[in-house]
Each structure stands twice: as C-alpha cells, then as structure tokens.
Amino acid sequence: MAKTRAERLISNADGMDAVVIANDGEPFLDSTFWYLTEQTSGTFEGSFAVVRKDGSMDVIVSVLEEESANAGKGDVRVYHDREERERFIRDALSGCSKVGFNMHSATYAAVQYIKKVAGEFEPVDAGKAIGDTVSVKDAKEIEATRRACGISSKVAAEIPDYLSEGVSEREVAARMDSRIRELGGTGNAFDTIAAFGEYSSQPHHMPCDYRLKKGDTALFDFGSKYDRYCSDMTRTVFLGKPPEILERAYEIVREAQAAGIGEYRDGAEAKAADLAARKIIDDSEFKGKFIHSFGHGIGMDVHQDISVSPRSDQILRAGNIVSAEPGIYIPGVGGIRIEDTCLITENGCEILTSFDHSFTVV
User: Fold this and answer.
1) How far apart are the first and last CA of the chain?
2) Domain 5-134 CATH assignment equals 3.40.350.10
3) 323 neighbors 339 (Cβ within 8 angstroms)
4) CB 359 within 8 A of CB 252
5) Distance CA 56, CA 91 (A)
6) pLDDT tens digits for range 235-249
7) Which residues belong to CATH 3.90.230.10 in the chain?
8) Which of 31, 202, 234, 241 has its CA 20 to 30 A from that of 297?
9) Residue 11 Cα distances to 52, 132, 139, 298, angstroms
C-alpha cells in the first residue's frame, strides 16, 4: 500500500517525534496544511495539523471548519473554545521531545504558544523534510497541475488577440486574469506580469499604465491555479517589428530553453539544466544577460524548494514539477523570457504547458 502524505512527511523528518503545521491566519497560511489534509476549501485559520512518528495525523480545527475538515484526511478534532483547542494540542504532542515546524512559514508566536500549551520540547526546522516530501507529486497532484497548465495555455494562445496599439499593461493583465477564471481556474498562481517595451527588461515588473507602441516587446509571465495547484509560463511577443537585437535575443533564449529542458530527467543534477542553458546565452553576444536561475519547483506554491540554479546541489526525481525559464534582459531596450512548466519523468520530462515558441509579431 502506498504511503499517505503524512507518512511520507514523517519518514523524511529524521529524529523528529512530530511535525506541526500551524495556520495562524492571513498572511501566515501554510500550503502544507492543505497538502496534508487534501482540502480545497476552508481557510483553516487557527488550525493545526500534527503528524506523529507512526504516520497518524490530528487535524485540529474550529467548529467553523468542521464540515470541510471532515471531508479530508486525518483524525479531525473540532474545538469550540480556546481551552478545548489547547487540550487537543497537548494530547497530540504528548510524549514528544523534538517537534518540527515549517520555519519558512511558522511564526515565532505560534511556536511559543504551542510550547506553552504542550510543555517543553525542542523545536526544530522541518523545512527540508517538507520540501523533500511535497516536491515529488502523486497522481492527484499531477492531474491538478495539468488542469492548471491547460488553462494557462489557452490564455497564452489568446494573447495576440488582446494586443493593439495603445492598450495598457494593466488592461491586458486584467483581461488575462479574467480569462483564467472564465476557463475554470480557481485563481492566479501569482500576480500577472505584463511588461511592454523597455519595461520587459525588468523580470518582476508589475503592470502599469504604459501603453503598447509599434516595435514594442510584450512579455507576459502568469499562471493559473486549479484545486490549489499552480502553473507558471511566460510568453514574449512583439507588436510590429522589434529592434533586430531583440530578434536575435529571442532565438538565443529559445535555443537555451531547449538545451536546459534536454537535461531534465530523473536522477539528473538540477544544476545541469541551468548550466546548459547558461552556456548557450554566455557563448552569444548576450553574455551576462541571463540574470536569474533556469527554474524552480512548482506545486501549491508557485515557488517550491527545488532550485534549478548553477549552485544547486539537488537531484531531480520523477514526479518533480519545475519551471524552465531562461531569459535575456537588456536595460533600456527590452527583455525576452520563455517559460514552461515541466514534469520530470523516468526518461526525461513532459512539458505541461503548450504555446507556440516561434518568433511572433502581432
């Protein structure tokens, strides 16, 4: 029988008697809670998932979340007041001397509160155990990601229809966000980036009132969510013929992405993809213009722990979902980025997003 997600987590949590995922409320909500409980609704503020050494899991929620919690995984403990909640926490952590927390999201106040309630124990960072667990996707997660990628791919195919001289970055981003929901997405994976003209040389530019002009680059980095799982893709097109340097840059980025994706497979060093893509760019006239890493892990959070960078020491595994996003950025001129979401397989990878990579002039 396949291990549950809670069992997989605790098996990765060397030396820990338990792992606690604490959801304090906005903005301190941890996607690991929904990963473990497999819930798609409910905010679960003031809730706790406690995974113990035997792989069992208590899900401690208020009466507000009772119905949603009962539809998911774990032994649900519903509290009606603070005293009842604290009793459930003490029971769940009874006998534990070393307790793991997701130090990437757990607040100091939450850890101190649980120590006060449950008695003295050693709090330790369970971040690596969580990352190692959530980075290998099961069939249910892969299917949700496919659905998210399918929605984004449909939006990408429509982008040329949204573009005309004088349209603003904000207007196009709003249309894309609306289409994500119209096509069945449950939300955005992150704030949509729409960057026109010189703004496209800023990798994390936020849409402004700039209006598209002839010869401008139009770069879009966006993603949808489906059942909490993210997609991530970038498409770069042009309104009219751009400067020749950007045409050359586009072809180099396209070649670099193909080289990097060619290194994606089970057992490969994560850095190999970045180094392959970076070599293509640095051997061209655009040396030094690739200013970020080739990729990152994707799951319920659009950025997960897998680092596809030249300094990464991680090994890719079948079931990882990662981005492939080389870019070239020329301040004062513009930028090019091409990005897809990829599933690592035994023999290579499957590209889950789909759109035309060819040089496109609208």
Assistant:
1) 53
2) yes
3) yes
4) no
5) 13
6) 999 999 999 999 999
7) 139-351
8) 202
9) 10, 10, 20, 22
Q: Does domain 139-351 have CATH number 3.90.230.10?
A: yes
Helix or strand (DSSP H, E) at 226? strand 224-226
Whether the Cβ atoms of residue 310 and residue 275 lie closer than 8 Å to each other: yes
DSSP states of 291-316 as a string? -S-SEEE-SSSSSEEEEESTT---B-
CB pairs under 8 A, 24+ apart, for 7-12?
7/55, 8/133, 9/36, 9/51, 9/129, 9/130, 9/133, 10/51, 10/52, 10/53, 10/54, 10/55, 11/55, 12/128, 12/129, 12/130, 12/132, 12/133
Please check whether residue 170 is in contact with residue 194, taking contact to mean a CB–CB distance below 8 angstroms.
Answer: yes
Q: Judging by DSSP bridges, how do beta strands 98-101 and 18-23 pair with one another?
A: parallel
User: Range with the lowest mean pLDDT among 62-66, 86-90, 192-196, 205-209?
Assistant: 62-66
List where CATH 3.40.350.10 sits in the chain.
5-134
Within 10 Å of residue 260's Cβ, how many Cβ atoms?
A: 25
Residue 178 pLDDT: 98
Residue-wise pLDDT tens digits, 185-233: 999 999 999 999 999 999 999 999 999 999 999 999 999 999 999 999 9
Residues whose CB is less than 8 angstroms from the CB of residue 142 and which lie 6 or more positions away in sequence, other chains included: 319, 321, 343
- Hey, what are 101's tokens? 């927390």
Burial 310-347 (b: 16+ CB within 10 A, else e): eebebebbebbbbbbbbbbbbeebbbbbbbbbbbbeee
Structure tokens at 52: 């113990």
Give the global pTM: 0.95
Closest C-alpha among 237, 207, 314 to residue 268: 314
